[in-house]
Predict the structure.
Amino acid sequence: MSLVFNEDQVMLQESARSFCREQAPVAVLRKMRDTKDPLGYPKELWQSMVELGWAGMTVPEAYGGFEFGYSGLGIVLEETGRTLVPAPLVSTVLLSATAINLAGSEAQKSALLPAIASGESIVAFALEEGAFHNPAQVALSAVKTADGYELSGHKKFVLDAAAADHFVIVARSAGKAGDTDGISLFVVDVNAPGISIQPLSMVDSRSAANVSFDKVKVPANALMGAEGAGWPALQRTLDIARIGLSAEMLGSIQEVFDRIVDYLKQRTQFGVQIGAFQALQHRAALMYSEVELCKSLVRKALSELDRGDEAEDIPALASMCKAKLSEVSALISNEGVQMHGGIGMTDEFDLGFFLKRARVAQQTLGDALFHRDRYATLRGF
Amino acid sequence: MSDLESFRAQTRAWLEENCPASMRTPAPEDEVVWGGRHAVYKNPDSKLWLDRMAAKGWTCPTWSAEYGGGGLDKAQSLILAEEMQRISARPPLVSFGISMLGPVLLEMATHEQKLEHIPKIVRGEIRWCQGYSEPGAGSDLAGLACKAILDGDHYVINGSKIWTSYADKADWIFCLVRTDFDVPKHNGISFILFDMQTPGVTTKPIKLISGNSVFCETFFDDARVPAGNVVGRLNDGWTIAKRLLQHERTMISGFGLTSGRNNRGGLSGNLEQTAMKYRGDTDKLSDPALRDQIAQFRIDSEAFALTSQRSAQEAKLSKGPNATSSMLKNYGCELNKRRYELLLQAVGTQALGWESLTEDASDFASEELAVAREWLRSKGNSIEGGTYEVQLNVIAKRVLGLPDMTSMIEKQSGKL
Ligand SMILES: Cc1cc2nc3c(=O)[nH]c(=O)nc-3n(C[C@H](O)[C@H](O)[C@H](O)COP(=O)(O)OP(=O)(O)OC[C@H]3O[C@@H](n4cnc5c(N)ncnc54)[C@H](O)[C@@H]3O)c2cc1C
């Protein structure tokens, strides 16, 4: 198994990098923030990304996708992390499209996957209910009715809810919060009566909302997969998304690290480049090692996803990625500010955006503590 | 069947037939085979195993068959390693000749020098030691003072080395000496080989904090060495010295890999199982803080193993070990040190015994005592082969391209 990019992958990386640098530099995110854009990302930008095939990279060809594989999607995500591109990649591509593909019926897949791949549809993923990632804790209730289900409860931190036409909803049709049995997945039109969306203003300036479901009546065919048996597909979806998000974080980590090293060479104090000071050199060298470890983990996890082997170690790899990347992302975003001195604290300078995105990405789909705990369980201790 | 498949089948059959049963268990410290004139084989199977493997050149599988090596390509040597792993076969021979000197001789020595030294390394006949560090030249290795003066067709060597691992057990030494005194320090060093039995060579063991004496002070008083024993060009020894250090670092970084763990007699079972056993836990480690630390350690270990793999794949595309060997050395060493610190936490005071005072080991089991000794030994990992701090300097300078602090200091003090 190769952990080094092949020629095609290098080409994809180059084209994704120049796209992000030219069409979606950090200034784009800054503008979204400054104009309080309700959608959270520029529609035309997303359309250009869709035209490059980024929305359908892992969608099967039969449903209008390109089956380019996870390594390819990972490369794209890494580049979007380098410039903090605001786009519904995590919500729609990593989470919802994956869940629909894994758990959806033929009809659900045919209706939604081509629409996602072509950019017509944005599907948000409604999972969290508290301030911490905790999928088994889902309590939003799905009660069976004569002709379908009635959904009631509250979802928090739903990414890209404002732009979505559908939600994938993780609900509980049996059991109590904490049980992994009794979880059901639904896909529902955002305009269904009883749904209300309360937008959130997050530090990373990306789009998220709290969403309430007040006795929302949905037809029986809104259910994805078997009632009460959604946990395995949910786990798999989350693992894929955790690995994808780790790829995005890897991009941000590398970008901040590159900026640090550049600054160490450029800034002079006491008559020398500050990079000559050993206190800074050693911290930079330690960060370099951590970045290299992150790269290896993410590449391994992505290529294992592409192997599609049943015996693979995806849950542990996903937790390793998310734990390690969260840790290193905290380290590097902090050092980024510190090593730039006063200028690192200014809003005009981009580093603050990376620091803020880092913390939100760390919490999204589980932080380092969550994933070390999960990893230990998976490894039997 | 493809060539590689039939190679695997033949290798498997050969190993089945030739690897003695007792060589299919982890080697306790006193059964590790280092070879040399004075080698003692506590377990006679070790000698048998060594001779059989050496006859095929499989102690050094990828070295050229012309010099006694196995002549295998990368893919074949990988298969050999996998097949050995499959039956838990011990390495037949470990030595500085294999991990450090040999690769450098193959790359930089003359044909005659290779013919003289490589086959003896392969067969484990000559054990080598490394004469680099001196009392006044540690991290600043190029500041070394041990001198070699030409007298006819011999060099006369005077000076001393320190921390020379296994100098008292070694047959030959690869040594850095100063051969030009009027040039910048890096440009007057030569790389020379000589027999430890040369008159004028003496050694004195130094006791370590772990209680063992693995290294020595080594003294040279008018030791006469044939001029032909210089490897590479005269005064160009620094190039060879650095190349060898890269190999050494790659070897030491292996301590961070589970396969390369340097615990031999220690507790069987991994860290988390040990921690659970000593707490009487059955399905989950009951101390949440320790559990989190062990998980973090294990994730870093897995990420490190993948990084070593990736670095090897990248090295294959370029050429040999590169500056990342400093990064791997450091990370591997820190992991090994972390592992022992966690092991102490896992086992508590039972890991802190120095020796057993009872006949039935009811106070401390021997594997518990081994933990303490290995924990102490692991502290040297970030000193040997160039210290942790020096590796960080190398990464900052070579990989990140940051200004070279040491040369700035030296320039200022006019020492260059
Ligand atoms: C177990 C073991 C086995 C060894 N085996 C051998 C052997 O077989 N052959 C051999 O030749 N040598 C051997 N060594 C020696 C080893 O290579 C040296 O100890 C090492 O290079 C450090 O040199 P020093 O001990 O003089 O420490 P010093 O160089 O004096 O270092 C002292 C401290 O200062 C720090 N320091 C020094 N320079 C810098 C700098 N520029 N920037 C920041 N910090 C700095 C060091 O990192 C260290 O923390 C062995 C050492 C050990 C521990």
